[in-house]
Design the sequence.
């Protein structure tokens, strides 16, 4: 009897622990601390930047593997952050060129092609610096925590964000499945379109 | 002393609604001080309910006291009361209970009829020649677009409107995010603003005064700080205000103001706000074309003063935790220049 009860207690404890951990999924900090905006100094592809050299000096920078900014995971595993990214994606008119992920004037974001890299820090830089052929630079226009939110949402479009944190519904017309059911695709960091690749 | 306290309370209740400790912005906010036909009718209904309830309450209390006294006296005269009363008494009691039931039914039907009549009356306001305003409730501020048949006479403002006294105002209520509720207690009852389902109400202000409005449906963290002001004024004053609102923004004159405009257009501000006459045209936050003509900032959270504005721009999360506006850590010289610019936007 006593053992049975202890087993029950243990079960309840484990279940409540599981509940406690899932609470963090929707953590909403009022004062958002972002992963360092300095990440941009390390993941830049060239020394050129939109709008001329930065005020703090245009430092040449080696390429960096993006996992040197581990805090960005906090954005990807938090449903609120990804959801905010989704809100800003429309608010800042990303949809104007990328549509709701399907692409238009700009490239599609729901496929596995990541022309300028699929890591959060690489997407961060793409938003901040702008890219050739039309992607404007948003450096100085969007606070860095919002850029991280946008980056996590852009990754969720390609199925790179945990399904329990990605948004599950949409207020707009949306062709594909919701972000939390996006197929988990192996990201392909290449600027080559599929049709130009060497046949295997 | 009591008189002084009462007088102070009365002044506060009648004339001002506090936005922050020690500072007051004019405006009444009370259902007990109706300023239009509909709020008058609602207030009348409230008084009907109130006085009828008072009469019923007093009668019930009197009967209870009467019954207690009667029973004690009788016990003193005749000893313990018999379990079975005499048949004649039983009959009288039956009549009394029947009479009370009838009176209660009549009273309830009277209230029902009053309710129905008031409901019809507040909807019967004619909307001919009404001033049309499209109101959008955002988390957590109000957008007002004054409609006009001529597109050049349409303008948008936020959190503060002026309306002409004696003319019907027809508001169309929208919400892009969650359910809000439009409520100016002195002018009309509440009306929910439902995403994807525009609702309408019409009201009229018969007294020139300043009123506070408030979101009346819980809509998130800053529901309580989602307020707006309604300034009811004579037609000619309203027309002057409207003409001023239709103007483009004031252009900067001094070097500091020019720098402020540059800061506005080249940092985070431009991503969400509009200033007519500049390249800023985003619609995520309030229209700031005539910011300096408004008495409050942050949807009635603070008086519109330079210091408050500086605090609001630098870290809005300390004033309205959870608000959509992010903190903007501008260098001091840029912040001061920005304030210089925002202060000229009359």
Sequence:
């Amino acid at each position: 009897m006593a053992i049975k009860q202890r087993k029950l207690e243990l079960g309840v404890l484990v279940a409540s622990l599981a509940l406690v951990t899932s609470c963090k999924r929707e953590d909403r900090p009022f004062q958002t601390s972002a992963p360092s905006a300095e990440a941009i100094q390390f993941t830049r592809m060239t020394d050129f930047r939109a709008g001329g050299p930065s005020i703090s000096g245009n430092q040449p920078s080696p390429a960096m593997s993006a996992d040197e900014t581990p805090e960005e995971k906090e954005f990807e595993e938090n449903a609120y952050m990804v959801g905010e990214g989704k809100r800003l994606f429309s608010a800042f008119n990303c949809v104007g060129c990328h549509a709701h992920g399907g692409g238009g004037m700009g490239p599609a974001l729901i496929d596995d092609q990541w022309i300028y890299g699929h890591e959060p820090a690489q997407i961060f830089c793409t938003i901040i610096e702008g890219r050739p052929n039309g992607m404007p630079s948003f450096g100085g226009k969007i606070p860095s925590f919002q850029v991280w939110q946008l980056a996590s949402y852009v990754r969720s479009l390609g199925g790179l964000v945990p399904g329990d944190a990605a948004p599950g519904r949409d207020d707009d017309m949306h062709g594909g499945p919701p972000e939390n059911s996006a197929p988990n695709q192996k990201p392909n960091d290449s600027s080559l379109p599929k049709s130009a690749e060497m046949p295997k | 002393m009591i008189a002084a306290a009462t007088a102070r309370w009365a002044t506060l209740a009648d004339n001002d609604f506090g936005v922050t400790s020690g500072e007051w912005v004019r405006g009444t906010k009370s259902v007990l001080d109706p300023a239009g036909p509909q709020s008058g009718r609602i207030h009348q209904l409230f008084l009907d309910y109130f006085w009828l309830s008072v009469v019923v309450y007093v009668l019930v209390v009197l009967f209870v006291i009467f019954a207690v006294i009667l029973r004690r006296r009788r016990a003193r005269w005749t000893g313990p009361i018999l379990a079975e009363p005499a048949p004649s008494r039983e009959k009288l009691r039956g009549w009394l209970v029947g009479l009370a039931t009838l009176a209660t039914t009549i009273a309830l039907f009277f209230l029902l009829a009053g309710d129905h009549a008031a409901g019809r009356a507040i909807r019967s306001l004619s909307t001919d020649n009404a001033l049309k305003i499209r109101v959008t409730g955002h988390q957590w501020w109000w957008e007002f677009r004054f409609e006009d048949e001529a597109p050049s006479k349409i303008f948008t403002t936020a959190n503060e409107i002026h309306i002409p006294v004696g003319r019907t105002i027809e508001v169309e209520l929208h919400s892009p995010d969650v359910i809000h509720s439009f409520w100016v207690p002195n002018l009309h009852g509440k009306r929910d603003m439902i995403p994807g389902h525009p609702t309408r109400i019409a009201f009229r202000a018969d007294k020139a005064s300043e009123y506070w409005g408030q979101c009346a449906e819980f809509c998130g963290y800053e529901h309580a700080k989602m307020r707006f002001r309604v300034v009811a004024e004579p037609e000619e004053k309203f027309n002057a205000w409207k003409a001023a609102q239709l103007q483009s923004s004031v252009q900067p004159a001094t070097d500091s103001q020019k720098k402020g405009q540059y800061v506005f257009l080249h940092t985070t501000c431009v991503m969400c706000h509009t200033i007519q006459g500049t390249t800023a045209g985003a619609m995520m936050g309030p229209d700031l074309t005539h910011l300096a003509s408004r008495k409050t900032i942050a949807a009635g959270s603070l008086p519109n003063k330079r210091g408050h504005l500086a605090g609001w721009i630098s870290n809005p999360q300390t004033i309205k935790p959870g608000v959509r506006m992010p903190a903007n850590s501008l260098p001091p010289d840029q912040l001061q220049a920005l304030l210089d610019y925002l202060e000229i936007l009359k």
User: Anything to note?
Assistant: Residues 34-42, 51-68 of chain A have pLDDT under 50 and may be disordered. The first helix of chain A runs from residue 2 to 23. Chain A touches chain B at residues 28, 30-32, 91-92, 140-143, 145-146 (CB under 8 Å). The domain at 35-49+60-192 of chain A is CATH 1.10.760.10 (Cytochrome Bc1 Complex; Chain D, domain 2).
